[in-house]
Amino acid sequence: MIQTSLRRRLLLIGFFTVAAALVLAGGGLVLSFEHNVERTLDDDIEGFVHQILGRLENDADTGGLRMTKTSSDPRFDRPLSGYYWQVLDLKGHETIRSRSLEDSILAPAGECIADGRLRFRYIAGPARERLLAGQMCVDWNGARGPTQVRILVGIDLDLLRPARDAFAREMVVGFLMLAFVLVLATWVQVDLGIAPLAKLRDEVGEIARGERTKFATAGPAEVQPLIDEMNALLDERAKEIERARNHAADLAHGLKTPLAALVADSRLLREKGELEIARSLERIGDLMQRHVERELVRARARSGPRSKKLHETPLRDTLDTLVHTLARTGTEVEFDVRVPPTLRVAFDRNDLMEVIGNLLENASRYADSVVRVSASAQGGSTRLVIEDDGPGLPEGAEQFVRQRGGRLDESGGAGLGLAIVLDVLDAYAAKIDFSRSELGGLRVSVDLPSNSAEGIA
Hints:
Blueprint: H1 6-55, E1 56-58, E2 65-67, E3 83-89, E4 94-97, E5 118-124, E6 130-142, E7 145-156, H2 161-208, H3 224-271, H4 275-301, E8 313-314, H5 315-328, E9 334-338, E10 344-345, H6 349-366, E11 370-378, E12 381-388, H7 397-402, H8 417-427, E13 431-436, E14 442-449
Parallel strand pairs: 9-11
Antiparallel strand pairs: 1-2, 3-4, 3-7, 5-6, 6-7, 8-10, 11-12, 12-14, 13-14
Helix pairs in contact: 1-2, 3-4, 4-8, 5-6, 6-8
């Protein structure tokens, strides 16, 4: 399943929106600039038309039309400059035009209506360029009688390109600066928008680590229903766990009396000389007792993640207590403990004693003479190593215990001690590893969670 980031999705949407808005705005501004410049050309063309009309007169010699003087704008005199004018006598079909047209004639721009109004059209120029043309038709009393005169002034629209391109370049620079500000604002907006979700994620982690029992009650209106549902679910889960623990405890306590009676019966049988039956009952009672202990440990381990802030147990003190207890049982094995007194692990003391106690008991049972215990800090965890000089694991057993969910007791040889250890370690997400020790026997390495740790002794 491909995971998608909400932050990335919002940022991409924001960046795309900013880019699309700026492109549309830039295109609109360029078009608006061109239209405004064309409006300016409209005013210029109107001025040129009235100027030409004011300088137009009859030529007494030819009977046609003539200009009293040429236009005051020199661009009308430069060949193919993009500025053109022409005057056409519609009755006599006589034409006078600007020098910029040379031998060309501008095509009329629609029907000529002699009402003195100026009309604008787009026409083709002498070089097939696109002209914005203004046309005015007027009645004229010529030397040869009344006639109509068409005055036409055209300006090449390509002359607008330099101004338009310069405006576009300046606009792009400004828009790039604006885009940077908008992207930064989008980034901040997304961060602020998903901040409640980031806080919710952190609280989920704290709940998983056991640092809190429920989510904060205050949240945005869109997230608050989820928070309320999750808190209700956590409360119900806590109640179910408490009921399960109480049920396991009640079951264990309920079995204590029958187990005590079973032990008493085995003692009576032993006194009567029924040794075989007594030993069988004792083995059955011991097995039942271990099962009860295991279920109590599993019930406690399943009660939820432990809080590193609430449970921080001195490792050396726990080891000393367990070694002292094992020594009192009459074991002849020597314990070589190499653990600094300042080393602490984020483990409940009872759970830690279950883990280390079972591992030390197994090591002392199979060791020939010595069990060595050492520990070292490794980042956020503490590695505890228990080694013995016994025979080690049976042939093929090492690969079995490395399998996920592997149990040596299921293979028929190690009782329930290792099963209890694995149950507790699984609740803390701790790792255990089996290998051959330099002493010749089994080497068990356990990575215990810790808040802080110091070096090996």
